[in-house]
UniProtKB/TrEMBL annotation:
The lineage of its organism: Eukaryota, Metazoa, Chordata, Craniata, Vertebrata. Pfam families: Thioredoxin (PF00085). GO terms for cellular component: centrosome; cytoplasm; midbody; nucleus. Transmembrane segments: none annotated. InterPro entries: Thioredoxin-like_sf, Thioredoxin_domain. Residues 80-163 form the Thioredoxin domain. The gene is Txndc9. This is Thioredoxin domain-containing protein 9.
């Protein structure tokens, strides 16, 4: 028992030493930063201040530019022609191909409305699949809802139905945000290696088969290849 106690004591001392060493490193780093600031003359401090102000101004300008291009809100576009124009002027675009009669499209709408406000670096659009047969054919969209994720004018990825979102109608906005983050279509601050739906208790319970309805003679099922 004494030997075991001694081992515990040694481990505790090692651990305390590690913590002290880490604290010392942090403290030294802070001291160095403070010293650097102390040694700066007024001109250098002014220069630093100007640089930070410029960075702030640039961020604000970028934000205004995004807003002027229709970012920050989830919008419906009336036609295929509008799609090409919208995609051309923004680096990151999420476009929801929907149908009025599909209940799951309303679920997708709810989450996209929230994300459009949060991620103004990305443009969020919706387009009626029945009014855009050429695009659906070209992008091989066969499951409704499908999100086309477009970067620099090219379709990079698709979110087809709810398969990637935990296979449930009850997926959270965070789950969709995570999936868009995986595609690098939004600036995602969470951990991509840790999907939010893994911690959901109701994982997969209310998933039912995606409805397959025919649009203008075409069956929409589950092919999502890129063009």
């Amino acid at each position: 028992k004494m030997a075991a106690d001694t081992s515990v004591d040694i481990l505790q001392k090692v651990l305390e030493n590690e913590i002290l060493q880490s604290a010392k490193v942090v403290e030294e780093h802070l001291d160095a930063e403070i010293q650097k600031l102390d040694q700066m003359d007024e001109d250098e401090l002014e220069h630093l201040k100007q640089r930070r102000l410029e960075a702030l101004k640039k961020t604000q300008q970028q934000k205004q530019e995004w807003l002027s291009k229709g970012h920050g809100e989830y919008r419906e576009i009336p036609s295929e022609r509008d799609f090409f124009q919208e995609v051309k002027e923004s680096k990151n675009v999420v476009c929801h191909f929907y149908r009025d009669t599909t209940f799951r499209c309303q679920i997708m709408d709810k989450h996209l409305t929230v994300l459009a406000k949060k991620h103004i670096e990305t443009k969020f659009l919706k387009l009626n699949a029945e009014k855009s047969p050429f695009l659906c054919e070209r992008l091989r969209i066969k499951v409704i809802p499908t999100l086309a994720l477009i970067k620099d004018g090219k379709t990079q990825d698709y979110v087809v139905g709810f398969t990637d979102l935990g296979n449930t109608d009850d997926f959270t906005t965070e789950t969709l945000e995570w999936r868009l983050g995986c595609a690098d279509i939004i600036n995602y601050s969470g951990n991509l290696m840790d999907p939010p739906f893994q911690s959901q208790k109701k994982y997969g319970t209310s998933f039912t088969k995606l409805d397959k309805k025919t649009i203008r003679g075409k069956i929409y099922d589950s092919d999502s290849d890129d063009d």
